Amino acid sequence: MEIVLLVAFGFVAIGAIWYLLTIYNGLVGLRNDMNKAWANIDVLLKQRHDEVGRLVEVCQGYMTYERELFEQIALARSGFLSAASVDQKAQADQSLAISTHTLLLRAENYPRLRANEGFLQLQARITELENAIADRREFYNDAVNSYNIRVQQMPDAVVAGVMGLQPREMLRAAAQ
User: Fold this and answer.
1) Rounded to the nearest 5°, which phi and psi values hold at 166?
2) Residue 66 domain boundaries
3) What share of the chain in percent tops pLDDT 90?
4) What share of the chain is helix, strand, coil (3-state, %, to 5)?
5) pTM for this structure?
6) What's the total number of domains in the chain?
7) Dihedral in degrees, nearest 10, Cα atoms 85, 87, 91, 97
8) Inside any domain, residue 91
9) CA–CA distances in Å: residue 107 to residues 11, 65, 77, 92
């Protein structure tokens, strides 16, 4: 009888450990999916950062009265470079996106600039990057949503608490 109880207890213990390991592995997978989704966005943000710098160089020769806007873009670009966390990069990205959008809108007032081949290519490239970033934001937000659900549901919340996992914020689109 004691052997049967010991074997039963062993199976229950092994089952519980297996269950907790399954939860742990699922949470690790979700965290890695979310980090990968952010890394994909980060690559595109860096590309856009570089293209905006080139765009400013092209525009400065034509837009002599937009010094304040160029300073605003330079500040947004440096803020992006100094951002360390996802939240900081997301805020810096919004600032850069708004400044870039403003630059492109004001460029409409400069017909010679709009006829410049380099400007047109950079404008198209930045638009392409913006669309790709928007697509990747959707993947990131899906990953964050799945992660947040698991981190907040029981019994996963207990394992997540032991792992130190906290819910994350979704990315929001910049107000243009």
Assistant:
1) -120, 150
2) 2-163
3) 65
4) 80, 0, 20
5) 0.83
6) 1
7) 80
8) yes
9) 71, 11, 19, 22
Distance separating alpha carbons of residues 79 and 91, to the nearest angstrom = 9
pLDDT at 60: 87
> Which 8-state DSSP code applies to residue 17?
H
Cα 25 from Cα 46, distance rounded (Å): 31
Q: Retrieve residue 19's tokens.
A: 């269950």
Is 99 within 8 Å of 80 (Cβ atoms)?
no
Please say whether the beta carbons of 173 and 137 come within 8 A: yes
User: Would residue 61 count as lying in a domain?
Assistant: yes
**Residue 140: exposed, middle, or buried by beta-carbon count in 10 A (0-12, 13-18, 19+)?**
buried
Domain CATH for 29: 1.20.1440.20
Q: Rounded to a whole number, what is the distance in angstroms from the first to the last CA of the chain?
A: 73
